[in-house]
Write a structure and sequence with these properties.
Strand content: under 5%
Helix content: over 70%
Number of domains: 1
Number of helices: 8
Number of strands: 2
Radius of gyration: 23 Å
Structural class: mainly alpha
Shape: globular
Largest sheet: 2 strands, antiparallel
Strand order of the largest sheet: 1-2
Distance between the termini: 68 Å
Order of helices and strands: HHHHEHHEHH
Length: 303
């Protein structure tokens, strides 16, 4: 029974990681191409080629770690921890490529039709009106540093552990390599996310917001509320929840590597929960956008 559960955890974790790497490219290819002009078409093709390249490199890295990377136990391997690469692939390549490929679909039909009296306009400098405060950043940096401290501090102690549940001894050299791999992976992956986050969040603040010609304060307020909700959700998801989960699992892998079965189950549950949470954020954001569009249409019908 234990072996079956271990195999199931392997399939879930590796399948989830692989799917997250492929999803941005599939999302763009699923969008029917309809660029508004030649410039957009060329930009779309350029971004799509770059997305193909980066996705291919990510998959090569996944395969290399899957077959040759350090393994702390029978359930977990280095490849499963590459799934957070989904977010830079999506944010910096897939989303811009989709907008250039078909602006009307990509922006939820928020792009005004030619000849429409309704215009898209930013009434304030939204780049300087981020809802993310200093204490938000303090929490995110604190979670990252705490995780890095707990994982890296394992290197101060000997890498001698008792046999795992199957009675198999784990070599100290293998444990040391696994520890070094996880320290570097956590440090560069989530440290990189912290460095890229300000630009990524500013991108979320610049989403088009179609207004009626007269300008309606209530409509601007609804846009502002949704914009802040999306940016805050993205912040807590990518910079707090993900590092907290990965830091916990990485710490367990280096401190109790003989508990592979338990770590695998917790990783499967945590990864699935984060995936469902991310999907819920996307669905709720779309619902909020639809409500704003209906409100805008009601205003236009009265003009």
């Amino acid at each position: 029974m234990t072996l079956i559960l271990e195999r199931l955890a392997q399939v879930i974790l590796n399948g989830f990681s692989l799917a997250m790497l492929v999803m941005p490219l599939a999302w763009v290819l699923w969008t029917p191409p309809h660029p508004p002009d030649e410039v957009a078409r060329l930009r779309s093709e350029k971004l799509l080629k770059l997305l193909f390249l980066c996705t291919g490199l990510s998959l090569l890295l996944w395969a290399g770690l899957f077959f040759f990377g350090p393994k702390g136990n029978r359930v977990l391997n280095s490849a499963i921890w590459l799934w957070p690469l989904h977010f830079p692939l999506m944010q910096y390549l897939a989303y811009p490529a989709r907008v250039a490929r078909n602006p009307k679909i990509a922006q939820g039909n928020s792009v005004d039709a030619p000849g429409s009296p309704i215009r898209s306009a930013s009434l304030v400098n939204r780049q300087n009106s981020s809802p993310i405060k200093r204490w938000h950043w303090s929490v995110a940096i604190g979670v990252y540093l705490l995780g890095l401290l707990v994982i890296s501090s394992r290197g101060l102690f000997p890498f001698d552990v008792p046999p795992n549940a199957s009675g198999q001894a784990v070599s100290s050299n293998s444990l040391w390599l696994n520890w070094l791999n996880l320290v570097l992976l956590y440090a560069f992956l989530f440290g990189g996310m912290l460095l890229m986050a300000p630009k990524m969040l500013r991108t979320g603040l610049l989403e088009p917001e179609p207004m009626v010609p007269q300008g309606v304060e209530e409509l601007a307020r609804l846009y502002k509320e949704r914009r802040e909700w999306v940016v805050k959700s993205l912040f807590w998801f990518i910079l707090v929840a993900m590092p907290a989960l990965m830091g916990t699992l990485y710490a367990m892998m280096v401190w109790v590597p003989n508990k592979g079965y338990l770590i695998g189950i917790l990783g499967a549950i945590g990864g699935t929960s984060l995936g469902l949470l991310g999907a819920a954020v996307g669905v709720i954001g779309s619902i909020k956008r639809k409500r704003i569009q209906r409100f805008k249409q009601e205003i236009e019908s009265k003009i």
